[in-house]
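_Per-residue structure_
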Amino acid sequence: MKLDGKIAFVAGGASGIGLATAAVFVQAGAVVYIADVNKVAGEAAAADLGKQGGTVKFVHVDITSQAAVDAARDALVAAHGGADILVIAAGWSSIAPFIDTKPELWQKLIDLNYVGTLRLTQAFLPSMRERGHGKIVLVASDAGRVGSGGEAVYSGAKGAVIAFTKALARESARYSINVNCVCPGPTDTPLLASVPEKHREALVKAIPFRRFAKPSEVADAILFFSSSRSDYLTGQVLSVSGGLTMAD
């Protein structure tokens, strides 16, 4: 799958699934903008991938800030006219029973995992419409499809991303813009590393393949939705969970 010359903006691209996505995009020939709130990790990722022969730039963006999102969009539009591919892989969770959580945590989870997606998508959508093409790939979670104990608000936010994907796909098809969603199951990322070991062990036992996903395996699904191989697919939700969540 080739992305030769395509302009790709990857939010959350400094680590985990976002970084793996940026790497496969570089290998596929895209010009990649890594966007992340972590400036040190983002600059290091861009430098490392650039050494592999790709064109990679880092953009410091807090997706909970409308001003930061607009500034990043304006810079990319000025340089390239817009993005051909928008991937939103930024996300965060905190595990605790819902009854023990506070409204401040709810707001943080919703702002980052859902409203941030709305901000970025709305910022980049106009230039895609004007150019008559675009690939938008939103990274939700299987928690949004089937729920996840200890992550009630996170599950709700990711479920909202899934519903948003379907609605936006209906609105955007007339402009030849594909909008699809990838839902990772437990994946070997820094976020998973923060989960208590006993919970991770239980998860592995529940996964038919008996292992966590590699970030690169989720990135391959994102690459598919970003390439011409998926031109007739929109509004679709693809679970990458090793068979953990075999649900419609």
In short: The CA atoms of residues 170 and 240 lie 23 Å apart. The chain is about 50% helix and 15% strand. The mean pLDDT is 93. Strands lie at 7-11, 31-36, 55-60, 85-88, 134-139, 177-184, 237-240.
